[in-house]
Amino acid sequence: MKKDYEKQIQELRKQMTLEEKIGQLQQCGPSLVGAFEVSFEELLDMMFDGRITKEEFERLMGTARQDFHEEDLRAGKVGSYNGIGDAATANRLQKIAVEETRLGIPLLFGYDVIHGFRTVTPIPLAESCAWDPTLWEKTARVAAEEATAAGVHMTFAPMVDVAKDARWGRVSEGAGEDALLNSMYGAAKVKGFQGEDLAKEDSMAACVKHLAAYGAGEAGRDYNRVDLSLQRLWEEYLPPYKACIDAGARAVMPAFNDINGVPCSVNAWLLRDVLRKKWGFDGLVVSDSNAIAECVSHGIAQDKKDAARQAVLAGMDLDMSSNSYSAHLKELIESGEIPESILDEAVEDVLRIKFELGLFEHPYQTNETREQNTMLKLEYRAIALEAAEKSIVLLKNEDHILPLKPGTKLGVFGALAADRGQMTGAWAIGARPEDCISIVDALKTNNVQYQYSADGTDLSKIAAVSDVLIAAVGEMKEESGEAASRADITLKQEDMELVRALKATGKPVVAVLFNGRPLAIPELDRTVPAIVEAWHPGIYAGSAVMHVLFGITNPSGKLTTTFPAAAGQCPMYYAHPNTGRPGGKSKFTSKYLDAPTEPLYPFGYGLSYTDYTYEDLELEKGKDSLLVRVTVRNTGKKAGEEITQCYVQMPCAKRVRPVRELKAFAKTALKPGEARQVVLEIAYDSLGYYDWDMNWVSYEGKLNVFVGGNVRDTLEKELLLR
Length: 722
Ligand code: BGC
Description:
The chain is an alpha/beta fold. It is about 30% helix and about 20% strand.
């Protein structure tokens, strides 16, 4: 049960000066200072735009040291830090806060622990392909145990931004294109991060992000505008954030983007009416990095002062890195532009989470010994391997070329096959290349006969002595994640050239993809007989891929994001409405002249080394929910796990509905020849939508129900809902 700290919060808040209150709303990160006169960000820009060379940048970085703003801290002007992930520094700063500030209020340390701290697990998009809430919670627990040992109190995760546009770089950070999957993923993460009791030393608060609809940025370009009907917002984008709040998440980060013209950072409707009033959230709202100040560039605030005013009034508690609150709140309060009671609410939110985390009782929640003993424990590594294996999606396997027979001689190509540092993908700040296992490492340790060439040198020579060729291609970790949108999401030219050259040798080619987003790979699909989608799988990348290649693991992952057949199809997602002219053979239908209407690989799709059939679909109306029963049979020769998906369609409603909506799923282990009845439940409450006037309408009428192993290949039955 949540403990009530309101009395203590009030008492403490009453003792605080205006400056101390404002200090609690200030979150800063360590700044880099060195023999350069511009900010670190500017320096980075200078390197990117060529004003200085990479060598010059590195030389300057060599002179850099971190400035932790200790003087401000001592003066009570800092309430929390972002980006400190080591026990020694955290404790050193905490000591200043506790022992040297007037009121001794402990610091809150936030950090981006997105998919593991040292034990880096697959990127969220990959892990979502396991369709496995137990796994999601387990990996979050590992992340929390390690991160808290390094002094972290709050993670800026989970990210539950539904993402339907593969061009957006941050698709890698969420659970794909579906609201239900993101909801279940987010809730499992919150439970794993926060544990049973937030006050325990190995629990960290979850900061759900980015409220809201950051994934709906126009054209997949990062930070771009979001212009959405309220109906779509409520049906397709808001449910996952709400699910995380319901699961107990204690913090929320508003998104960079605007929604229908009002940036989320100053959006009172979103932060007060929806989040606090409608959803009953009483936790902490933390701005995204510099987001308050960016309201000036959005064109909604005159200057930083105006942005600070709007943000506080809208319900933004903490200012991450923009110094807008620290510079202007005092003046705004003293002039009466902001009532002090509003400021007090924000301060109380900060104090509340600090109480809940047990920081007043145990401000030093870790030490260097615990930190050292916690990282990369054997049991954590086992979970990382399990997660990597379950995340892999087998996209193509013609003539059963996979699994490879023991003793198969391999020719391995592509830099990604040996580059350990690339395996962890975007947003893995604590990752170290030496912790990671590449494909080449795994082959070596397991005495597989192989020859390796990063760039294709000696290609013919290697091919001549190999039975099968492996092409490790895809994206570098910098090519997905924040600020990594791409307009062309096809395979890079040099990758495709390598694959063509391998194919020309006449030896069978297996492509292993390492990437952070769905790619448009029609040519690859035409060229090679087998494709293994490994994503950025984390520290056990190589082992997991090797296990799949040799059939030690039977792949079971299924796509949580549609793979387009052409980059120009984006945004491409399964839950679209039909239009009056659904794409078909006739010219005057909704389609492209130069690309198919169908995706290359549909949502929910993924192959296995065994085969499954579906039979006996039955629907039964229960009291509060619809019961869907289906028999799944393993008709092949290998044991495996099948992910069964249930979709519905409301074919005649007051607002057009998607052709399919995922409503339930289950993962079933099946031995060869075994059949099991899978029962899926769909709450009647979930069978509805918002009408034109934003009233929730429970659906009545004919309902089509689809069940199968992906969204395209399903059994179908209808029933009448009344
Ligand atoms: C990202 C957030 C992240 C924050 C703090 C921002 O640039 O958008 O997702 O949590 O930085 O590092």
